[in-house]
Amino acid sequence: MTRIIVSYDGTDSDRDALALGGLLAAAGAALELAYVRHAVEDEQGRERLAEHEAEALLADGALAAGDPELPQHVVLSGSTAEGLRELALAEEADLVVFGSEYRTAPGHVDPQATAKRLLDGGPVALALAPAGFAEHEGLEAATVVPISEDGDPCARETAESLARALGGTVAQQPSRDADLLVVSSKAGAVTGRVTLSAATDYLIELATCPVIVLPRGVALRFGR
What we know:
alpha/beta, 34% helix
C-alpha cells in the first residue's frame, strides 16, 4: 500500500495539501500527518506548551480529514525539508504532500520552499496541491495525465493505477480538463531520486490541477 505523509500546519496551503491527501487516500493510500518544529524551547514549561500545541494542531488536521486515528508525527528539525525527508525514510513513506506557496493565485501550482528542496534530489515522490484546492466540492481525479521522460514508464503506470482506483481515465496530453498530472523525473537522474527537467518544471508552473512528481524509476501503486 502506498503510504502518504501530508505536511500540515493548519494554514490554508496545508489544508489544500490535506484535501489532496484525502483524494489519494480514497484511491487506497494510507494517510499520515506531520508537523516539523524547528527548535526546543529553553524553559521546560514553554517546551511542554509547544509540544502540546503541535500535537493539537495535528489532531485538528486528523479531524478535518475525517479520521482522528490517523498517524500523526511531530518532528524536531532545524529544516522542514530535512525533517520531512528523514521522517519519510524512517516511516518508509512513498509520497509527501504539500500545498502551494503562500499567495499563489487560486487554481495554480507553485511549490513552496520546502517542496522545492525535495524536488531537487529528494528520495520520495511529491504531490503538489493547487492554491484553493480544499475549497472545491466533490474532489475527483476523473482524468489523469502521465508526463513521461524517455525510458521511464513509471508516470504512466502510476496514472493507470490511480485511474483504476478512482474510476477515472488516463489521457494522453495535458489540458484544462485534466484533474491530475503525474510526471516522472528527467532522463539521466539517479534512480530513486527526484530531479526535474526544465520542460517538466515549466509544465508544473502552468498546471491548474494537482501534480504528482515521481523519483526516477519509481511507480506508485493504488487500490485496495
